[in-house]
Design a protein that fits this description.
The chain is an all-alpha fold. The chain folds into two domains: 161 residues, no CATH class; 121 residues, no CATH class. Helix content is 56%, strand content 3%. The protein has 15 helices and two strands. A two-stranded antiparallel sheet has the order 1-2. The longest helix is centred in the first third of the chain and has 22 residues. The protein is elongated. It starts with a helix and ends in a 5-residue tail after the last helix.
Length: 300
């Protein structure tokens, strides 16, 4: 197992396996609890076999871009998305499902549901992901104890997931300062709208554009409005090959010349605006929400 682990933190790995089938434990209590359950040579052998069996799945969870395990690559794509969003507390759920011989189609639906959960609750509403660690571990234990259907698993998640109305209220005032997270949110929204031209998934190949720029310069905008709206989702868009550093602080009518050349639909749409104000940002944020609620929908 250590040879296959390639230097991963084994204590964190042991804890993930533990939380996938036993009562939730913190790291400091892990080995004490382990000694209470694994008390015979046979139990020790069984537990170590589980550790060997699950190491491949765990490696994909912590490094989906360099490791592979599932035949359905969409599962690893959702795991990659969750990695970008700094989500890891859901790991026990995937381990529990794999150990309970769930079909990959079922695992994919659950991982997709978890992505919606994390985007709604953590990215948009700003709730700390760690607060759901116990929820996910309890759900993993239920899956290990008794096989659950997707609808049963989804219902458990749904109980703690933001409603559409709550999601809308948070989305309408949401600012995202992390460039990688902002690109992910905008890319998924654009790809849902413009399915014939998917934006390149690599964050290195697309650029985040602040329509009202970071340095207000010649923009006639009050400092309070600039600070409040700069990182709002409605003030952000994507640029690809047409990206030009020289336009980043230009006035809106100059920026529109570059937006017009864009192959990215959400950016090209900006040409229809005559001016860029806080009111326009609010309007665009509402338009983006109308798509976002379909991309990261409540699952049942």
């Amino acid at each position: 197992m250590q040879e296959n682990a390639d230097g991963i933190d084994l204590t964190k790995y042991f804890r993930t396996i533990w939380n996938s089938k036993y009562d939730f434990t913190r790291e400091k209590e892990l080995y004490k609890n382990l000694k209470g359950i694994v008390t015979t040579p046979a139990e020790c052998l069984h537990f170590t076999r589980e550790l060997v069996k699950c190491i491949g799945i765990y490696k994909v969870l912590i490094d989906p871009t360099n490791e592979t395990h599932f035949k359905d690559k969409q599962i690893e794509k959702h795991i990659e998305n969750l990695k970008l969003l700094n989500a890891s507390t859901y790991y026990p759920i995937v381990i529990a499902m794999a150990n309970s011989s769930y079909e990959e189609a079922e695992i994919k639906k659950v991982v997709e549901a978890i992505e919606s959960f994390i985007v709604r609750n953590c990215v948009i509403a700003g709730k700390v992901a760690n607060r759901y660690e116990i929820l996910f571990a309890k759900l993993a234990k239920k899956i290990s104890d008794k096989r659950m259907s997707f609808n049963e698993i989804a219902q458990e998640l749904k109980n703690d997931m933001l409603s559409d109305e709550e999601f809308k209220n948070h989305f309408m005032v949401c600012s995202i300062k992390s460039a990688s997270v902002a690109k992910f949110i905008l890319r998924k929204i654009n790809d849902f709208q413009q399915r014939e031209m998917i934006v390149h998934p690599s964050n290195m190949k697309i650029h985040l554009e602040h329509i009202m720029p970071k340095k207000s310069g010649n923009w006639k905008v009050h400092e309070d409005i600039h600070n409040k709206y700069l990182h709002r989702i409605g003030n952000l868009t994507l640029l690809a090959d047409e990206y030009n550093k020289s336009i980043k602080n230009k006035e809106f009518h100059e920026k529109k010349k570059v937006y017009k050349k864009s192959k990215i639909e959400m950016t090209k749409k900006l040409v229809s605006y005559n001016e860029w104000t806080s009111t326009r940002i609010d309007e665009r944020q509402k338009e983006l929400y109308d798509v976002a609620k379909q991309v990261w929908k409540k699952f049942i």
